[in-house]
Amino acid sequence: xxxxxxxxxxxxxxxxxxxxxxxxxxxxxxxxxxxxxxxxxxxxxxxxxxxxxxxxxxxxxxxxxxxxxxxxxxxxxxxxxxxxxxxxxxxxxxxxxxxxxxxxxxxxxxxxxxxxxxxxxxxxxxxxxxxxxxxxxxxxxxxxxxxxxxxxxxxxxxxxxxxxxxxxxxxxxxxx
Length: 176
Description:
The protein is mainly alpha-helical. Among the domains are: 1-33, no CATH class; 46-82; 101-146, no CATH class. It has helices at 2-7, 16-30, 46-57, 63-70, 74-82, 101-113, 115-119, 122-128, 137-146, 172-175. The termini are far apart.
């Protein structure tokens, strides 16, 4: 009831929460929420980025002068001056593996057959396999991951110690 009374603009005394809600509703109606991507200026072509850089670095023009000369916005000018002219390559994309299918099979065969090889560290496993000493460590790790293996940290085990006293008391009947 209080919120409906506020929305209908009645002069009824209400709680501070309802008054705040009403003020927020009015503010939203007066100033609509804009999406960032809806009014984003298009990216400039490479030739225009080069022209903007030349105007800034060679002609020592200000942003306002560059804006008048090119018709670009301040954000477009700033983007043209701060980003590289050519797009960067994806740093995550790596070279294709140099391991052949035969070499990958030679890595996975002992892991599937020998239980001792499964417990070895990957760098020790590299030494365990014949003809694999010329491989780099990162290449071997990449080949292991490509073969479908992953590293697992073994669980910590509690070290057993010798105890002088028994952990539980026995009755006299149990001792003898």
